[in-house]
Design brief:
Strand order of the largest sheet: 1-2-3-4
Shape: globular
Order of helices and strands: HHEEEHEH
Number of helices: 4
Radius of gyration: 15 Å
Length: 142
């Protein structure tokens, strides 16, 4: 994938924990047992996607067993924040899942990530469950 390096760069800048980097391995295989794995990428110049850096990305899976979408990772390069990319990517994921007959969507987020929590709340997401000490470096609930 032409933008793989750009996604890795955003992951390193945005997510300090090694657990978040595990989604990179899912991207390499692009397969998920029991469903589909999808990726969608914004670049800083839509007309020249192959020659530009990644501005934002989303990785999500559609699970055939639960009929739910799960956002694995969403990241925006710090230079491209405040442009609505994350919101548009979330809308894309939710619309794609709904159009394919999936009934709900889930995601995990650090309790301290107030900007992400605000985005998800504005999009209608609600807290369903807390996973104690889910994240490492530093240890934190999701």
């Amino acid at each position: 994938m032409a933008h793989f390096g750009g996604i890795i760069d955003i992951q390193k800048k945005c997510f300090p924990s090694s657990r978040e980097h595990s989604s990179i391995h899912l991207l390499e295989g692009n397969e998920y047992a029991g469903g589909e794995l999808h990726k969608f990428i914004f670049t800083d110049n839509y007309a020249e996607c192959e020659r530009t850096s990644v501005a934002a990305y989303i990785l999500y899976q559609l699970d055939n067993r639960t009929k739910g979408a799960h956002v694995i990772s969403l990241g925006t390069c710090p230079d491209h924040r405040k442009k609505g990319h994350a919101k548009e990517l979330m809308h894309f994921c939710n619309t794609h899942a709904r159009d394919k007959g999936y009934t709900h969507a889930t995601l995990l987020v650090r309790k301290s990530n107030e900007k992400a929590l605000g985005l998800y709340q504005n999009l209608g997401y609600m807290e369903h469950r807390v996973f104690t000490d889910y994240y490492r470096s530093p240890t934190e609930d999701a």
